[in-house]
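Priority: medium. Attachment 1 of 2:
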């Protein structure tokens, strides 16, 4: 039996981990909220971060620079939704290749 983190790594590797982009990451966040039947704003509030932090308008910065949240923020979201890293990997869109 494979360790759960190895399975997670294998899932990302099969997706092409070097191909995970900003859009895929934010889709996973949106999918996580949808799976819990809550809005991204509500998910942010229960995570203890600013309610607007996950708004679509805040996913890109000035000049179109793509915003990536910190690992600490992601951990707060995963903790608040009782989601393990391995489970979060399932929320990424499947690679279309």
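Attachment 2 of 2:
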């Amino acid at each position: 039996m494979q360790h759960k983190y190895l399975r997670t790594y294998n899932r990302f590797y099969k997706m092409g981990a070097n191909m995970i982009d900003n859009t895929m990451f934010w889709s996973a966040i949106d999918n996580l909220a949808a799976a819990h039947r809550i809005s991204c704003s509500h998910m942010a509030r229960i995570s203890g971060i600013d309610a607007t932090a996950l708004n679509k308008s805040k996913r890109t910065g000035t000049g179109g620079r793509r915003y990536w949240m910190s690992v600490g923020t992601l951990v707060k979201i995963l903790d608040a939704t009782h989601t393990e890293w391995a489970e979060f990997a399932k929320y990424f869109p499947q690679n279309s290749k």
